[in-house]
């Protein structure tokens, strides 16, 4: 009950900002970093699904299989977390209330994209990995529109 | 690594708010601020809110390890959140971000005068 009240207070009485300041990267934002991480998640998801265990009782082949699978899983989880962090930076640091007026769906888009990062981290789900890429494409369109720049969506892979 | 007399990992912890903190906020004895930027990670994530005690330094100096709010020395009107690393004999404080790789702080600005320090972070909201 109290948590709900506190949550409502936060919502209706937003706090003023205080800067955890960094002169270096401040003002330099690009959804490309989230996109690259999400592409790695998609790639690792495909590789995990395509990887088959060796037939027979060859222990050396099994060790190689398990090693490869472990690496794919580790990279998938790491990159999903990275994609989430990059999205949260864009959401909380770059986008401003004026952008929300322009794109009322902005919070929902970011929230769903962050949720997809979490889903991709814990699952091996090709659909969710593809949906994450689509969500980041939406964010890419919003981001560059706020800068009045026409930057076409592209992927590295 | 040690900072002052306490290990850094102990200093990193910041408690969650309790009902009393919200009550003090209603009485205007606390203010709420939302963290923007990454220089206090991993202690404080961008978007997190904290409660500030603005009266605490009226009679005492900041202590090493405390997280404080201060005026940016070169950007008027900009409040920054950093951790006290050193308190000099004249009361000036060396302020550092917990995320040293992504923080602009006393390593660039030098020590911050006590009258530029606005309050102490009490807890997360």
Key phrases:
heterodimer; A: 157 residues; mainly alpha; 6 helices; B: 125 residues; alpha+beta; 6-stranded antiparallel β-sheet; two-stranded antiparallel sheet; 8 strands
Write the layout of secondary structure elements.
The complex is a heterodimer of chains A (157) and B (125).
Chain A: H1 2-12, E1 16-19, H2 32-50, H3 59-94, H4 97-102, H5 106-122, H6 126-146
Helix pairs in contact in A: 2-3, 2-6, 3-5, 5-6
Chain B: E1 2-3, E2 6-7, H1 8-12, H2 19-26, E3 31-36, E4 49-53, E5 67-71, E6 79-87, E7 93-96, H3 106-109, E8 117-124
Pick out the low-confidence regions of chain A: none
Number of strands of chain B: 8
Distance between the termini of chain A: 48 Å
The share of residues in extended strands of chain A comes to: under 5%
Q: N-to-C SSE series of chain A?
A: HEHHHHH
**CATH architecture heading of chain B:** Ribbon
The quaternary structure here is heterodimer
Name of the CATH superfamily of chain B: Umud Fragment, subunit A
Helix-and-strand structural type of chain B: alpha+beta
Helix content of chain B: 10-25%
**Share of residues in strands of chain B:** 25-35%
* Radius of gyration over C-alpha positions of chain A, nearest whole angstrom: 19 Å
Q: How many domain modules of chain B?
A: 1
Radius of gyration of chain B (Å):
14 Å
The level-1 CATH class of chain B: Mainly Beta
């Amino acid at each position: 009950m109290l948590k709900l009240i506190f949550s409502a207070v936060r919502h209706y009485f937003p706090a003023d900002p205080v800067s955890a300041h960094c002169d270096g990267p401040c003002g330099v934002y690009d959804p490309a970093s989230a996109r690259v991480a999400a592409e790695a998640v998609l790639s690792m998801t495909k590789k995990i699904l395509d990887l088959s265990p060796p037939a027979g009782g060859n222990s050396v082949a099994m060790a190689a299989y398990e090693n490869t699978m472990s690496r794919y899983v580790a990279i998938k989880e790491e990159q999903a977390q990275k994609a989430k962090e990059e999205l949260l930076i864009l959401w909380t640091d770059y986008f401003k209330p004026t952008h929300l007026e322009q794109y009322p769906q902005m919070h929902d888009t970011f929230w769903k994209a962050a949720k997809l990062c979490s889903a991709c981290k814990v699952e091996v789900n090709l659909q969710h990995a593809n949906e994450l890429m689509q969500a980041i494409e939406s964010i890419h369109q919003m981001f560059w529109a706020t800068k009045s720049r026409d930057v076409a969506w592209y992927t590295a892979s | 690594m040690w900072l002052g007399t306490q290990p850094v990992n102990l200093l990193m912890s910041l408690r969650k708010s309790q009902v009393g903190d919200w009550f003090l906020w209603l009485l205007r004895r606390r203010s709420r601020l939302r963290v923007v930027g990454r220089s206090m990670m991993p202690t404080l994530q961008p978007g997190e809110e904290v409660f500030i005690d603005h009266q605490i330094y009226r009679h005492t100096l900041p202590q090493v390890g405390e997280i404080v709010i201060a005026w940016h020395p070169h950007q008027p009107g900009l409040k920054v959140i950093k951790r006290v690393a050193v308190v000099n004999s004249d009361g000036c404080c060396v302020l550092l971000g917990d995320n040293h790789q992504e923080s602009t702080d006393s390593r660039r600005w030098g020590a911050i005068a006590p009258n530029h320090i606005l309050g102490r972070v009490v807890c997360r909201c």
